[in-house]
Amino acid sequence: MTWDALIQALPSLAAALSLILMGLCGVQLLARLTRVLRGQEEVDGLPKNQPRRFAPLSSLLAVAGVALLSRVAVYLLGYAWYRGLGIGADSFADSFMPLWCHWDVNHYLNIARDGYVATGDERLRLVFFPLYPLLMRLLAPVTGGDVFLAGTLISLLCAALSAALVYDLAYMHFGGHTASLSVAYFLLNPMSVFLCCVYTEALFLCLTLGAVCLSRRGRPWLAALCGMLSALTRMPGVILAGIAILSMLGRIGKKTLTVRAAASCAGQVLLVFAGLFLYWGINFAVTGDPLMYMTYQRENWYQEPGTFWQSTANTMYYFLHTRGDGDWFYTWGFQLFCMACIYVLLAFGQKRLPFDLAAYSFVYVAVVLAPTWLLSGARYLYALCALPLLQARMFRRTGTHVLALSLSAVLLAVFVFGYTIAVEVL
Predict the structure, then answer these.
(1) What pLDDT score was predicted for residue 68?
(2) CA–CA distance from 205 to each of 30, 309, 378 (Å)?
């Protein structure tokens, strides 16, 4: 095979490899589902006849504090790039908004100020889900009407809560060492740069992790409420309905399924989907079409429902053919790297997660990587709530974790530069 022929074949090969790896994960999950239905495996991976271990409050507060300090460090790094490279000489405060207000941030700011409209270019804001800008608007009076500051504070608070919830979830399953590792992976992930920004990642992760942790504490309705709010933040929030469904399937294996339990499950699923239904209602109220956001996505962002393997092929194609362009590394290169990592992690590491989180992860990855013309796959994958647990459980040797976390830290520094200076991170 010639070099040119190999280059032409690589996108198809990448798609095929993604199908093989996801298929391997899917087969293993089906085998685990069979064990669940037979009562041989707990859905949530927690023994039912033993007391559950929960992280001490002092540890959770410490983790939240570390998360906030890590975000301060990221802000300072961005400012160091700005001053060190001679980009400008403004103070930290004066340079903060120019450095951290890019891309989707402007859309959220405009929605928080003016809401949704049906005419002009501003109508395209409708593709952004409403909860985050609504919270910005509600908090703005506290920040003197500054919606950018309000959004930043929301993201920081949710980042701290998310880190604590990552620790709590990992602690109840695997103990303190794995919990600490999980938080390290969570905070050093290159895409954690978006925890600092007026983006939805922090809020979405906080609500998703909150739903999972509440379900494990025997609070399914509060978990479903978090799921509803998650779905009102971003579309993949509806996948949390699967946690309730899997819990019901676990009852079948234990022969404890009752009509009341089935009805409760149905109600919790509907509550989660209520977030999406509310968003459809907003679409209808603004435009008369509950699915207008899909039209805007198709016409202006060239996004339609697709498949993860086609997105993998497209990413490989653009990675091979855009070398030298400004977005070659920050978009296509890193998106391809993250896709490869998540496929491998799921194919060979899903068994290290509780069944419900492994199944959730499989569906989440298949959904978020499916849209055509995918540009933000790396960021979407970061919002997979089980990712830091999967990373912390993937390796046994401390040295391997040190190497992986060091690489993550270096890439985080690169992406801080990318977002604040190069402004190429999508």
Answers:
(1) 98
(2) 27, 25, 15
Q: What angle do CA 152, 155, 158 make, to 5 degrees?
A: 150
Q: In this structure, what token pair is assigned to residue 226? A: 């978090």
Q: b/e string for 313-351 if b means 16 or more Cβ within 10 A?
A: bbbbbbbbeeeeeebbbbbbbbbbbbbbebbebbbebbe
Listed residue (163, 152, 215) closest to 186, CA to CA: 163
Q: Tell me how crowded residue 6 is: count the other CB atoms within 10 A of its CB.
A: 10
pTM confidence score: 0.96
- Report CA torsion sign: 365, 368, 374, 375: negative
Residues 113-149: tens digit of each pLDDT: 999 999 999 999 999 999 999 999 999 999 999 999 9
Cβ(248)–Cβ(262) below 8 Å? yes
HEC states along 198-234? CCCHHHHHHHHHHHHHHHHCCCHHHHHHHHHHHHCCC
Enumerate residue ranges in the chain where pLDDT < 50: none
What is the token pair recorded at 110?
């405009």
Per-residue b or e along 212-236, where b marks 16 or more CB atoms closer than 10 Å to that residue's CB: bbbbbeeebeebbbbbbbbbbbbbb
Residues 133 and 41 sit within 8 Å (Cβ to Cβ): no
pLDDT tens per residue, range 22-39: 999 999 999 999 999 999
Q: Please give the DSSP secondary-structure letter assigned to residue 256.
A: -
Q: Is the dihedral of CA 251, 256, 258, 261 positive or negative?
A: negative
DSSP string, 386-398: THHHHHHHH---H
Best CA proximity match to 195, nearest among 82, 385, 67: 67
Burial of 166 (0-12, 13-18, 19+ CB in 10 A): buried
